[in-house]
Amino acid sequence: MGRRSVWSQFATLGEDALGRLAKNPTTNRMLQSAVELKERVDDLTRRVRGLEAMEQRIERLEQRLDRLDPTAPETSGGSAPETAATTTKASGA
Fold it and tell me: Residue 41 and residue 3: Cα distance in Å, rounded?
């Protein structure tokens, strides 16, 4: 019987602590930030999956093009064409 009262005291203390944490504005902001972070990670995961699917489609298209025109030069994995870098000189006084 004594053990039961100790456990119920712990349970009561835990419930009180959780109640105080739930009312604390700092805890509320932390929880909201955690939920927003989870949503952002989920969104980024969906976007990355979309990019992977797009890369697979591009790879298949490149293979089809290679079969249609085998004399065309090989591509280096879809890298963007190189452009000349422009530089500006700082005017000296």
Answer: 45
Indicate the number of domains in the chain: 1
Q: Any long-range contacts for 40-48 (C-beta under 8 Å, 24+ apart)?
A: none
* Interior/surface letters 20-40, b for 16+ CB within 10 angstroms, e for the rest: eeeeeeeeeeeeeeeeeeeee
Q: Is the pTM of this model over 0.85?
A: no
- Domain range for 61 is 7-68
pLDDT in single tens digits along all 93 residues of the chain: 455 688 888 888 898 888 888 888 998 899 999 999 999 999 999 998 889 889 999 999 999 999 988 776 665 555 555 544 555 555 554
Whether residue 77 is contained in a domain is answered as no
